[in-house]
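Here is this case:
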Amino acid sequence: MTALALAKSAELRETSILPGRGGFFGRLSDAFWRRPKLLLFLMLTPPLLWLGIIYIGSLIALLLQSFFSIDDFSGLVNYEFTLATYAQLFSPTNFDIIIRTIAMAAIVTLASAIIAFPIAYYAARYAQGKWKALFYLGIMLPLWSSYLVKIYAWKLILAKEGILTWIFAKLHLSWLLDGVLNLPVIGGNSLSVSYLGTFLVFVYVWLPYMILPTQAALERVPGNLIEASSDLGATPSQTFRTVLFPLALPGIVAGSIFTFSLTLGDYIIPQIIGSSRLFIGQAVYAQQGTAGNVPLAAAFSVVPIVIMAIYLWLAKKQGAFDAL
């Protein structure tokens, strides 16, 4: 009986397993089917090589460059380990650039969160069907146009002869615009050459990156929790503070990762719209291209990396990665 059972088992295996396919691709497919780990290895190798060699390798090379210095007499890079280049970051001029960039990134992030929340809340709670599709279209549509085209369009809008100045004049509010432009910190000859104009363009460009994660987080908030809060006697403001906002906070923090990091590293918007005072991205470009001071440019580049590493650590503690 045992021999008969073994024979039947062998015959069953022969009939249940399909014969190998012919040709190169057929044999290759059979080999991947028999060795799934080989297929996984071949699929992961190219992106891991790109990440490990091109991306991480370039960051390591950048970090190493920041520990060199520039010879003041010859203008050549002195390839000796030193922290003198990092010490230059704390000079009044360079430190002012760092503080200015961080402050702008923080203000843009805060403003984007305030503007994005009611839009995201409406889309999550009330928009249905075609209205929700229209919401996504309206949010994504600005991202489909050219980055430079949008910035130059805003430069024309904010210019002294632009449409915004014309609207203020037609509404007899030119005095209000002039008063804002005369403010010592955010003003200028026109909005297109002021910090206020830079701020407006930053918010416009990065706002979709705040709205979408916030809207996704609000959609995951159960509606019965809001109803239960109201049934228990909580006012709308209490419901917002104790129920809605804490549950939506991971999405807001997730959106802030995009707005803060993108503002922190951008150099095109401050180059086209704003005053002559530099941001970190402009300082890196100037030191690398114009001054030829590669070590100082590398040291400036390390600053956003360190800031974002701390920011991501704090965001992870708030559960932001679960909302992405």
The two ends are 61 Å apart (CA to CA). The chain is about 75% helix and 0% strand.
